[in-house]
Amino acid sequence: MLSIAREKPADTDDADPAMSPGSPLRHDVDGFARGSRNAYELVESFAEVVRDVRLSVVRVTVDERDVALGTIVRGDGLVVTKSSEIGGGRIHCVLADGSRHLARRIASDAINDVALLKIDAGGLRAIEWSDEAPEAGRIVVTPTEETVPAAYGAISLRAYRPRGRGRAGAALGELGVLFAADRETPSVVFVRKGSAAAAAGVETGDVIQEIDDVAVGSVEQVVRALRDRHEGETVEIHLFRGDKEVVADVRLTLRRGSPPAPENAQEPLWGLLSSVRSGFTDVLAHDTVLLPDRCGGPLVTLEGKVVGLNVARTGRVESTALPAAIARDVVADLMARYEGK
To answer: What's this model's pTM, rounded to 2 decimal places?
Structure first.
């Protein structure tokens, strides 16, 4: 059972969200903010709202570290979560009953930063998406797998399609190879030791043919296919090795010289933001203070209707969800890829 703890002294404040020492939004060691709307007593009052939905929520860990929430989308162990938060490492999902299950990534949607995981479990309660499109001002809650939700807030803007396709603050990914100088054919002439390509078994002399089912016939097309991909994402690469076709699943590593950069000069004062926080298909904005490791789970109205899938913390008091209609389509596409349809 969670309990509200004493506040951190000023010299140990981790500034998330970063506020002055006297701010009512300063976090205590339990992760709740005493005196703020996310104080334990207030969040606990929404326990009844998420009583049923929380059974469809999991906690996702990588190498024993909490990195995201996940949403059960099929009873035989299919879970969606925030893709960029689960880079290399051993992935587990913790269910509402406390059981812990090894997970593997089986498909990803790079645009919406959603990954489909598979755990060996059955009889799970799959999420039920609502057809409702909540209006601005509607109170929404973010459940976890525990009885008390993570946070609550209000819809800031009804679902809309953001302008631009860029990735705010994202760390770009790379393969770690060099190609032939003529650049006409994506023929690999060097594989950097310790790179993503090396880990996936790519070899000197390999010629790349496809990246995630998109044909590439030149180095420029390879660059274009990877331009908006990010650290931790996995791409499926088809290549020729002599007269043999080889498939390599490459988990991209951080592109050298490309650390995440803030879009706004105030961002360093806002606390932890999601590394991938823009470029989504459609979004539902809400003012929940939702830390990055609480993204990937459902967004719920006071009536218990699931109206979105949280995908990013984008500002000091701003988070983003995929509307339920978009989340449903993304999940259907990921499942179809998993099943080979």
So the answer is: 0.66
